[in-house]
């Protein structure tokens, strides 16, 4: 990768000395070649379809919840265990998924993962008892693990840092569109083929798409890019070392404050998302005594709200960046505000007295939580050095899905015990609030590279090697990087740093 500007020794918010900072030209100077446009379009179309299939698979058990309970004689807690088995396996599989993705790339990882999860989805239609169902759900979770980290990696590889908000919104919206169309489509398939035929049909579609992904997509390092194409992709980003992360570096991420803030915060988002994904059809049927057809139609509406939240996030974050807000700060603002509003809406769902009011409140909760969740993935794009994005994303997903795996079984147990969803919804809103506070108070520094990973403490030069840096140069460096000194801005912070002697003697007013 061409180095256009070599950074001095990094601050806590700057890249490692082995990295470079690529200056950001004016928006008009960012020119995509026709080939890049084709690559981007192909990648986003395939990601969009994969995400829809992915969430059709995830929704299938939730939509067939009552039918399977009646046919197999399962309790709410047992259905919760089946739903939790998937998310627990999914979360644990994130740990090896990240390093493997950094080494093998999205072409192999998503192609193989899609094939595996679709195979187990097909097997779901052939199970005969609860134990077999548990094992199939575990296999499904392992297969789906690469999906989100691969999406982050693809967008990070093929879009400029200032133009990633919209593709990330589209990618995330695809999952919620998949959720939105799942209830009516899967309900119709169940009425025609039965729940077993529904599982098998969706699985076969996924296998076909996995083959298409492998044949049509190429990893960035496998494409011979021109200098103009490299310039477009790298402008404004940290040009990091190309070699994969070592195990020592990967392990050090677990000692990083920002990493823990992301893990805790995203857990609040995924708990909320997974509770509604797992139990929304069952909630509507149990609380409002709806039939299967009515449930399928009404359950789609809140997920359409969620898709709108994801799409609007892309517009909002890109707008804030164009207006001069730092990319990281714009994501954090969207995350915290979205989570707080989602917690508020979820807390009053149980007080709804009509089906329409309940659907509206749940829809607003999903709009806000998916609006925030899109920025959580966007935050990785702009606050993590590129060679670590997949690992950071997979660790974030690991923690959040381990925690979210309790949502289905806890909700099922509460339903069996209290015959109401009220306590489950209250717990959900509390967890969302804690997640918002984590992003607000714990996520304070970017994750850059090497020695800066562990702890996020400021890196300092030995006294003999300190150099003087003027305030204009410091501001320019921050602007070029797009993530330095993030969440702590203004001349007051710069003056305080210089007075402390970290950059040598203070210059200027």
From TrEMBL:
Q: Where in the cell is it found?
A: Cell membrane
What is the topology of this protein in the membrane according to its UniProt annotation? Multi-pass membrane protein
Q: Which GO terms describe its cellular component?
A: plasma membrane
Could you tell me which Pfam families the record lists for this protein? Answer: MFS_1
**Principal location class:** membrane
The question of whether Transmembrane helix is a record keyword is answered with yes
Q: Where's the Major facilitator superfamily (MFS) profile domain?
A: 43-447
**Region Disordered, residue ranges:** 1-20
Keyword flag Cell membrane: yes
Residue ranges spanning the membrane: these are 39-56, 77-96, 108-127, 170-192, 198-217, 258-277, 297-321, 333-352, 358-380, 392-415, 421-442
InterPro entries from the UniProt entry: MFS (IPR011701), MFS_dom (IPR020846), MFS_Na/Anion_cotransporter (IPR050382), MFS_trans_sf (IPR036259), Sugar_P_transporter (IPR000849)
- Keywords of this entry: Cell membrane, Membrane, Transmembrane, Transmembrane helix
Name the domain of life: Bacteria
Q: Name one GO molecular function term.
A: transmembrane transporter activity
The record's comment on protein family reads: Belongs to the major facilitator superfamily. Phthalate permease family.
Q: What is this protein called?
A: L-galactonate transporter
């Amino acid at each position: 990768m061409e180095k256009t500007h070599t950074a001095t020794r990094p601050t806590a918010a700057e890249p490692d000395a082995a990295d470079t900072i690529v200056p950001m030209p004016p928006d008009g100077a960012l020119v995509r070649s026709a080939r890049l446009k084709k690559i981007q379009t192909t990648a986003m179309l395939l990601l969009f379809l994969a995400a829809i299939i992915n969430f059709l698979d995830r929704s299938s058990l939730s939509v067939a919840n009552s039918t399977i309970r009646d046919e197999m004689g399962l309790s709410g807690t047992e259905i919760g265990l089946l739903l939790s088995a998937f998310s627990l396996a999914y979360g644990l599989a994130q740990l090896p998924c990240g390093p493997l993705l950094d080494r093998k790339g999205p072409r192999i990882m998503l192609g193989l993962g899609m094939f595996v999860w679709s195979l187990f989805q097909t097997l779901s239609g052939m199970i005969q008892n609860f134990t077999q169902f548990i094992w199939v759900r575990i296999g499904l979770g392992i297969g789906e693990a690469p999906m989100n980290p691969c999406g982050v990696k693809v967008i990070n590889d093929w879009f400029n840092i200032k133009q990633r908000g919209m593709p990330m919104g589209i990618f995330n919206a695809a999952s919620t569109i998949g959720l939105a169309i799942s209830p009516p489509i899967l309900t119709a398939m169940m009425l025609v083929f039965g729940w077993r035929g529904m599982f098998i049909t969706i699985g076969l579609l996924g296998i076909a798409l996995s083959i298409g992904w492998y044949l049509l997509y190429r990893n960035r390092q496998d494409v011979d890019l021109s200098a103009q194409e490299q310039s477009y992709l790298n402008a404004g980003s940290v040009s990091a070392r190309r070699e994969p992360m070592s195990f020592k570096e990967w392990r050090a991420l677990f000692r990083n404050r920002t990493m823990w803030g992301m893990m805790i915060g995203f857990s609040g988002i995924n708990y909320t998302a997974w509770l509604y994904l797992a139990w929304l059809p069952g909630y509507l049927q149990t609380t409002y005594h709806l039939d299967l057809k009515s449930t399928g139609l009404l359950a789609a509406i809140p997920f359409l709200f969620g898709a709108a939240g994801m799409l609007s996030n892309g517009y909002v974050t890109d707008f804030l960046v164009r207006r001069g807000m730092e990319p990281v700060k714009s994501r954090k603002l969207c995350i915290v505000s979205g989570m707080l509003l989602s917690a508020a809406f979820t807390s009053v769902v149980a007080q709804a007295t009509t089906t329409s009011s309940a659907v509206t409140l749940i829809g607003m909760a999903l709009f806000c939580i998916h609006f925030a969740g899109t920025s959580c993935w966007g935050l990785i794009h702009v606050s993590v050095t590129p060679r670590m994005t997949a690992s950071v994303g997979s660790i974030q997903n690991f923690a959040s899905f381990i925690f979210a795996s309790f949502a289905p079984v806890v909700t099922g147990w509460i339903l069996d015990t209290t015959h109401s969803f009220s306590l489950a919804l209250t717990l959900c809103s509390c967890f969302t609030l804690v997640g918002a506070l984590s992003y607000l108070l714990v996520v304070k520094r970017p994750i850059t590279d090497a020695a800066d990973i562990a702890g996020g403490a400021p890196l300092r030069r030995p006294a003999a090697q300190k150099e003087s840096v003027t305030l204009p140069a410091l501001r320019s460096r921050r602007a070029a990087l797009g993530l330095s000194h993030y969440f702590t801005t203004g001349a007051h912070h710069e003056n305080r740093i210089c007075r402390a002697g970290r950059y040598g003697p203070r210059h200027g007013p």
